[in-house]
Every structure is written in C-alpha cells, then in structure tokens.
Protein: DNA polymerase IV
Organism: Sphingomonas plantiphila
Amino acid sequence: MTDPTVRKIIHIDMDAFFASVEQRDDPSLRGKPVAVGSAAARGVVAAASYEARAFGVRSALPSVTALRRCPELIFVPPRFEVYRAVSTQIHAIFADYTDLIQPLSLDEAYLDVTEDRRGLQTAWATAKEIRARILEETGLTASAGISYNKFLAKLASDHRKPNGQFAVTPEMGAAWVEQLPVAKFHGVGPVTAAKMKRLGIETGGDLKAQSIAFLAQHFGSSAEWYFGIARGIDDRPVNPSRERKSSGSETTFDRDLSDPAEIEAGVLAMADDVAAWCSARQQFGRTVTVKAKFADFRQVTRSRTQPQGVRDPSDLRATAIELVRTLYPLEQGVRLVGVTVSNFEPTTSDMPLFSDGKSPG
C-alpha cells in the first residue's frame, strides 16, 4: 500500500472498551471476568471483559444467564461519563493524523490517512503509532485494521484482536475475502447469513460465484453491495459529517425466547444503549420503535410518537416495554429484539455513543 493513488483506511477498535476502562481504574478487577451492567434478576450485560467472553458472556446477555455461564463473574455499574471522556482523548489522538474521521461509536472509528500528515510513510506505521499513543495516554489497548477501503479495514481489525493490527493490501484483498465466512461480513446480519447458508453461500468465494441477477432475485436492493464486497470492492468514503436520522440497537438471542421476562431484559438493554447515545449527543427523538423477529424470521415493529423528544432514560425504557408487551401472547419464540429512536429534535453535539445495531463494549 505504498501507491499514492490507493486510499489508505484505518479502522480503530478499542478492545473490550467499557470493561477495560473498569479494569484499568480498579486494579483488583484485572485478569478477572468482568461484566459492565447489573446483576439484578432483570439485569443485562452491557459489556464483557475478554476473561468473561471466554465463558460465553457477551453484551445484551441477561445477567442471570451470564452468571450461570460464569459463576465468578464480577458486575460493575456502567460509568458512561468516564467512557465518553476517554473516547474524547482517543479522538483527539486521531485528529493529529487526519481530518477525515468517521466515528462509529465511542470505541471505534474509520480514519482516512491517504494524506500522510505526519510523514510516517505507510498506513501500517500510522496505525502502529496511533495504537501506541492510545496505550500511553489512556492505558488501554486498541486493535487496527488497515486496507484500501472501509469494508476490508473493519474486517481486518478483528483479525488480530486484542491489541494487534492486520493489513489487507490491494493484491490480497479479493482472495482474502473469498476464504472468509459471510457471517463475518459487515452488513450481513444473522438472518441474512442464515438465508445465504440455505442458498449454499457460506464463504466469500460462494458469494462471488453468484451472478448479480441471482443476488437481486434473493436480496433485492442489497445485491450490488454483496456483489461488490465479494470482490473486495467498497467505494464508500470516510465521511466525518455523516448525518444521523435515528439511533438504534438490536441483539440476536442465543436461542428463541418465549419467556416475556427474558425478552424484556433484551429490550431494556437495547433501550439503555440508545438512551446512552442520546444523552451523550444531547439528541432526543420523538418516535420510539421496538422491533422483534420471530423464529420463522417474520419481523414486526411497534412505534409511538411523543409530543416532545424522549429525554429521560426511564421514559424510554417504559415506552419500549409497553410497546413490546403489545406483542403478547406470543405465537412463537422471539429470536431478535431492537429499539430505535428517530424523529430527532435539533442537536448541538456530533459524537455518537453507539453505532446503529451495535452492542456496547
């Protein structure tokens, strides 16, 4: 990637961000399984340390389930003001290397470093220096993916986690994508991955073998996107001024749920994600939407529009629960729930807390 005509994109992703901040600030938690969230009966895991992830503990998991998987799990309450302060430090580091920064959440962002502002010669060296500065200034580790487009950079950042980096060059991009499971692709969620599997598409190579007509028949308007990424193609720019029209978070459960308490725990976790984003950005929406997908992949939504933006997190939680309860009694299990806030009032901030559909940490 020394060719000056090739874009140089870095995707920085902090390692288990919320949990790592807690372990940094409380040395007694280091090396132990930690969950950010509440251990209450209806509590939910907001984020998990790598030690906890080894037991299958992850974001949006009901706390009772997390404790069954890891009886030694230590719960700590979230401190969003601290996470945001650390994120501000990290983004200040990014700004020393480029003006083209697209935040996806508090803990990840795309950087276009095609212009070598600090004279480091390569995007690899730039990513390495950024990660070193993050560690020095915050005491936290980050992973990085380096490539010639956003799709590949994001895939690459997962390849050497935690505390590593990986580059996908133009020479290797298309072949590298072919051997990856499509379930790992950004933009291919669990439902789409399951549909692709039923069609015999399990790897990037399988996806590449399909014609645009076949993809259009089965995936509609997403066909061109899937056709491109199967070949390592993604022309999207790093956009630092991306306007957000909504904020949402969703989670797919490990199994289909029929117990209202478990379903509502997931809804509350997603509502808390969105409430934290809204509070951090001081951007409040009038419309609350709850989404549910059932075992047969049928999707339903329920929405309510208020006279004013929903500012109190407890009001958002209450509205989300009222909306999901309109689905009862259930005819079949629920595999996914999501909460979205839209119809925003004017905002004065531009830093997202969570990207749409992403669980924290």
Remarks:
- Residues 21 and 209 are 44 Å apart (CA to CA).
- Residues 246-344 form a domain with the Dna Ligase; domain 1 fold (CATH 3.30.1490.100).
- The first helix runs from residue 17 to 25.
